[in-house]
Each structure stands twice: as structure tokens, then as C-alpha cells.
């Protein structure tokens, strides 16, 4: 690139710094200790590569070669260095004064020299677009890279200046700075930055991303993609990002309004089709709130002649499909297609042989919610005020089996609560795995090798080593204890992610990954494996002896990663809370005293007790508080079969109908 510019000899004393030099914002680059080797090289060998200069105000400004310029000034100041004076001339290449790619020229040379400060590089790409009227396409062509790689650098270079300054001053990490690029609006970035720095002097990338989620919805998010067309039609503001998938729908209220309208329309369509009395919609299905709702189910009916004929046809087709599915040579795609057909036929057959009663239809309805990236229908729900409490009637307190409902004082763990506790235990187990990288690395590698080389069943189904993060659904994610979340966030911050640069080619990323120290690799593998842990209760030794033993090793006490809180106690009945206080924790007197209190007061007492055990507790009571958790969550607790949850409202697999 330099051969096209006119050679010129310039006195060292006539050289000055150029404002467009991309290292100009990193003065540490020119510190004596950082250029000592360059100074020594020039002393012995002379200047091997000419400086690129541009005439500015009668001086020659160094556009590319700032470190060599700094070394030359050091040599002039060093009286022991012979031949280097302010009047000594050196070879340069003169860049025309009207050249409009000054930043590009400086950046091109600096990329081939000593590694640049990452922020300098991000800002240089941004300046090329803003000042030199370059585009991502022309920049990519100039440096022989991809447009996506250029846009990735540009996004970081366009982060709010205050945040970049904080990263340059090392008051926040580079990864934390990059997290702010999740929202393209500099104003939003600044507001979140100021709010978080007031709350906590140390920012984490995870905290930043969570805070930015409340300031809009990305177009690539499942909800964003679902509502975007209607959102734009209504004039909703969009913060455009250089990478389209990171653009943000800024009006979160409008997004929710549109989503609820779409959910409501789907619920109404289902209501009209099935004949229910009412329809409703909610963004997230709140299992705690819905615990007071009843549910009705279709009962068997005698099919008419036409329905019976169709049932016979379905039976014949199902028999044929079962034979086809037994073909061992069947490819996965073909097998899945047959499986889906079987599901559809079985559902059709059920619909022909079951129906809701007129009484049930008159008091029940359907709610549509957003789950797993799609609309989910919850059908046959009965509002609390419409619930019939007649012995033996559907929706009454009598179980379908004919057995009486459990005593109010017996802790039976409703199905919705049990599912959420499974999620919380998986999160705690994930934290434990992230904090024990060597053991988790051994487990991961053992599973990979065993699954490939061994015959028979997989050594464990408890972890998914298939590079997919496990989705953990929870009705009250914003209210759970944050111990495990904080531990995982700390483990994430400790990871060496220098190799994970989205501007690099996969092969280059792999080379950088292989160069990591073994301990750093172990942390990465442990963190990734921890993210695949599935929702679960304590493992049954008979069903999975490997994970049973492993969990005991890395998580002998779940309370090191999880603490019961008010959100949990709110979901317990008053009688359960008194039972736990009196029997499990040895606080019999407190349980008697609280018996006349409201449930709200008892929940507050329990929350305070577990947050910081009272000084008046005996050693035994203190130990009981420190160890207590629902038994099926504790690794060393009772076996799964001994703590099987009982649903308050039994829900068969067919309860939920999903609509695209």
C-alpha cells in the first residue's frame, strides 16, 4: 500500500503525531518500556520501514508508524545514541493532504504491527464509517475480511463514549463493555450504565444484559419476531443495529399489547371451536396464580355411525404405521414423519370418543399464553368463583381415583411447585458443576468417550453433551433465590473468552482455544456442561448410579447454592409452614405462637429466619435451618420415589394443546 505514495526525507524534529493515528487514544502504547526493543532495533539496523506522514500545519504528521516515531524521539533524547539528532532525516512516504482514507491507512499498517488495543480497533472502524464515509462493505474489501466481521467491530466502536472510556480505564472489563452493544441506542446504554454503577461499583456482563432486556425486545427474540410486522404497522420505534438481528423494538409496552391481542385472538378462536364459555390471555402462564383454578376434562361418549367408521379407519392406518416404524433401516426423517402422523391420528381418535359435558362447557374456558417460542393453549380451566365443590363432581376436591384429598396439614407438593423446584435444583447443580471444573471435565469427557466406544445404553441421560443449552422453564424466575445465578455469573466472568471472537474464522478460534492452558479449558467445559443440566430431583441410585454419586461429590449440600425464600413459602399452605417450623426445625413454640397469625406473617417470619438464622436459636435449631430444603431437592436426602409430588389438579398429557 505504501509504494503508491511519494518518498520524502523528513527531519526527526519536524515529525508530530497525527490525530487520525488509531493508536492515539492509547498513550500506554508509546511508554518507554513498550518501545525499548524497537529503539534497540533502530539503533543497530536503522529504520527498516518508512513512516507514513501527511503535511499538517507545516509539520509532517505521522499517520502510520507512531511507535517508530516514539522510538526515534527516545534516541534523540538519548545523548549516548550516535547519529540521532532532531535534524537527522529519515525516509518517509508522503500521503496527499486530500486523502480521505487516512484512518484506513493507519489501521492497515497497525494491524500488521504490534497488537492493537481492542477498543482502538473498534473505534477506528467506527471512525472510518463516520468520518471517511466508508461503508461496512468497502471496509471489508479494504482489509480482506467479511462484512459480518466488520459490523461486529463497528457495533463495539459505536458503544456510548462514557462506557468505552470506562473500559479503557479498566473500571469495567472488555466483555462487560461489549455487553452494552446488545442495545443499539447509546442513550439507553448510558442510562443503564449510570443506573448500574450507582448500585454496584463492579459490573458484570450478565447484569448488563439482564438490565438491557427491560429496555426493549430484540427483533431476533421469539416474541420480537412474532409481533414485529404489527409493531411496525403501528409505528412502533425501532432502534436499528448494524446487525439486523440485534435491532430492538423499543416500546416494550406496545410489544406486550400486540402479543396479548394475538394470544387473545387465538384463545377466542379455540373457545368458539370447542364451545367453552370464556377466553383469556396472559404473556406468561403463572402457575402459582392458576393454582386456585379448577379444570374439567372430556369424558367418554358413544360415537355415532360416521364417527365409528372413521375410528375404524384410523385403527387400520395405525396398525400399518406401526409396522412401518419397526423397519430398522428407516431414516430418522422418515421415522419422525411417521411418528407425527401417529400422534395426529391418535388425537383425532380421542376427539371422536371424548367430549366435554354441557355443564362443564358452560363454566370453563381457555387461556392462551406464550411458552417456548409459540402460543400454548390451556383448555378446560374453571375460575375459582365457578368451581363446583360437589362430592364426586369433576373439578371437586375428590381425586379422580376416588380417594379423599390429602389432609390440609400433609405436605404433598403440587405438580406446578414440584416442576419449579426441579428447575431450581438444576440451577444449583449447574452452579456446583461450574465450581468444580476438574470433576465436571472428567464427567463430560467420560460420557463422550463412553457413549462412543461402549456398547449398550448411555452411561447417563442426566447431561446433554450435544452443544445445546438446556431451557429451564420456571413460573417465578424473577423471584427465586439468586445464589446459584450469582455463582454461575462469577464463574462466567472467570472464563477466558479471548478465543471466542466472532470476528475470527472458526479455524482461528479453534487454534486460539487449543492454545489455552488446561485449567482454563476445564473451566470452559465445566461451564458448558453445567448449562446442559436438566431439571430434576435427587437422582435414584437404581436409575442413574453415575449421576447419583457425582452429585453427592460436587453438591453434598444444595444449601451452598440455594436458599429457601418468601417466593417458595408463599406457595406453601399455612399448615405446611407450621409443620415445617414445629417438626423439621424444632421451633415448636414459635409454631404455636404463629398459628393465630396470617399466612403473610408466617411467610415473612420464615423468610427472615432463613435469610439470617436468629441469634436466639439453639445449635440444633440453627443446624436444622441451615440444612432444610424440600427433601427431593437435597442430594443426600430421601430417594425420588419417597418424595413423589402429588398434583392438586391432575393434568393428563393431553391437557395442553399447542397452536402454531
UniProtKB/TrEMBL annotation:
Keywords: Coiled coil. The keyword Cytoplasm does not apply. Residues 304-362 form a coiled coil. The keyword Coiled coil applies. GO terms for biological process: chromosome segregation. It comes from the Bacteria. Residues 8-111 form the ParB-like N-terminal domain. GO terms for cellular component: chromosome. SMART domains: ParB. This is Plasmid partitioning protein ParB.
Amino acid at each position: 500500500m505504501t509504494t503508491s505514495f511519494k518518498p520524502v526525507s523528513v527531519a526527526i524534529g519536524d515529525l508530530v503525531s497525527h490525530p487520525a493515528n488509531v493508536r492515539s487514544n492509547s498513550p500506554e502504547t508509546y511508554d518507554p518500556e513498550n518501545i525499548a526493543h524497537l529503539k534497540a532495533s533502530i539503533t543497530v539496523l536503522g529504520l527498516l520501514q518508512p513512516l507514513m506522514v501527511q503535511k499538517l500545519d507545516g509539520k509532517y504528521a505521522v499517520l502510520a508508524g507512531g511507535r517508530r516515531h516514539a522510538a526515534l524521539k527516545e534516541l534523540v533524547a538519548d545523548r549516548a545514541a550516535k547519529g540521532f539528532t532532531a535534524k537527522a532525516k529519515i525516509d518517509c512516504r508522503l500521503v496527499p493532504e486530500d486523502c480521505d482514507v487516512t484512518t484506513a491507512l493507519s489501521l492497515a499498517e497497525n494491524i500488521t504491527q504490534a497488537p492493537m488495543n481492542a477498543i482502538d480497533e473498534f473505534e477506528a472502524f467506527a471512525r472510518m464509517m463516520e468520518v471517511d464515509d466508508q461503508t461496512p462493505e468497502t471496509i471489508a474489501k479494504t482489509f480482506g475480511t467479511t462484512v459480518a466481521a466488520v459490523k461486529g467491530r463497528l457495533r463495539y466502536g459505536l458503544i456510548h463514549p462514557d462506557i468505552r472510556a470506562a473500559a479503557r480505564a479498566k473500571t469495567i472489563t472488555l466483555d462487560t463493555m461489549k455487553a452494552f452493544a446488545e442495545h443499539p441506542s447509546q442513550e439507553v446504554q448510558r442510562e443503564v450504565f449510570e443506573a448500574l454503577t450507582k448500585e454496584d461499583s463492579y459490573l458484570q456482563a450478565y447484569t448488563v444484559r439482564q438490565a438491557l432486556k427491560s429496555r426493549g425486545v430484540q427483533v431476533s427474540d421469539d416474541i420480537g419476531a412474532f409481533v414485529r410486522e404489527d409493531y411496525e404497522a403501528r409505528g412502533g420505534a425501532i432502534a436499528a443495529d448494524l446487525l439486523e438481528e440485534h435491532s430492538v423494538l423499543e416500546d416494550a409496552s406496545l410489544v406486550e399489547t400486540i402479543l396479548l391481542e394475538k394470544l387473545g385472538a387465538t384463545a377466542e378462536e379455540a373457545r368458539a371451536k370447542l364451545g367453552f364459555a370464556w377466553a383469556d390471555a396472559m404473556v406468561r402462564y403463572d402457575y402459582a396464580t392458576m393454582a386456585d383454578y379448577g379444570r374439567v376434562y372430556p369424558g367418554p361418549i358413544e360415537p355415532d355411525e360416521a364417527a365409528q367408521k372413521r375410528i375404524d379407519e384410523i385403527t387400520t392406518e395405525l396398525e400399518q404405521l406401526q409396522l412401518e416404524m419397526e423397519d430398522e433401516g428407516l431414516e430418522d426423517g422418515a421415522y419422525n414423519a411417521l411418528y407425527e402422523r401417529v400422534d395426529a391420528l391418535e388425537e383425532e381418535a380421542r376427539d371422536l370418543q371424548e367430549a366435554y359435558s354441557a355443564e362443564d362447557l358452560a363454566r370453563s374456558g381457555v387461556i392462551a399464553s406464550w411458552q417456548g417460542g409459540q402460543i400454548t393453549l390451556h383448555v378446560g380451566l374453571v375460575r375459582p368463583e365457578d368451581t363446583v365443590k360437589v362430592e364426586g363432581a369433576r373439578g371437586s376436591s375428590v381425586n379422580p381415583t376416588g380417594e379423599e384429598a390429602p389432609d390440609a396439614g400433609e405436605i404433598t407438593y403440587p405438580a406446578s411447585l414440584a416442576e419449579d423446584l426441579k428447575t431450581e435444583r438444576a440451577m444449583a447443580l449447574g452452579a456446583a458443576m461450574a465450581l468444580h471444573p476438574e470433576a465436571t471435565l472428567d464427567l463430560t469427557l467420560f460420557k463422550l468417550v463412553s457413549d462412543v466406544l461402549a456398547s449398550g445404553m448411555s452411561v447417563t441421560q442426566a447431561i446433554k453433551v450435544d452443544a445445546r443449552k438446556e431451557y429451564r422453564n420456571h413460573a417465578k424466575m424473577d423471584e427465586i433465590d439468586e445464589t446459584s445465578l450469582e455463582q454461575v455469573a462469577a464463574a462466567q466472568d472467570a472464563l477466558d473468552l479471548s478465543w471466542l471472537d466472532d470476528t475470527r474464522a472458526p479455524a482461528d478460534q479453534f487454534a486460539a482455544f487449543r492454545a489455552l492452558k488446561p485449567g482454563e479449558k476445564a473451566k470452559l467445559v465445566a461451564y458448558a456442561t453445567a448449562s446442559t443440566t436438566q431439571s430434576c430431583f435427587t437422582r435414584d441410585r437404581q436409575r442413574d448410579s453415575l449421576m447419583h454419586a457425582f452429585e453427592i461429590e460436587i453438591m453434598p449440600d444444595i444449601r451452598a447454592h440455594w436458599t429457601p425464600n418468601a417466593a417458595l413459602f408463599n406457595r406453601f399452605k399455612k399448615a405446611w409452614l407450621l409443620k415445617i417450623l414445629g417438626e423439621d426445625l424444632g421451633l415448636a413454640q414459635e409454631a404455636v405462637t404463629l398459628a393465630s397469625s396470617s399466612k403473610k406473617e408466617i411467610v415473612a417470619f420464615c423468610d427472615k429466619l432463613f435469610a439470617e438464622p436468629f441469634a436466639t436459636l439453639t445449635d440444633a435449631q440453627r443446624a436444622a435451618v441451615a440444612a432444610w430444603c424440600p427433601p427431593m431437592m437435597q442430594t443426600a436426602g430421601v430417594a425420588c420415589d419417597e418424595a413423589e409430588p402429588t398434583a392438586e389438579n391432575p393434568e393428563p398429557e393431553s391437557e395442553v394443546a399447542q397452536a402454531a
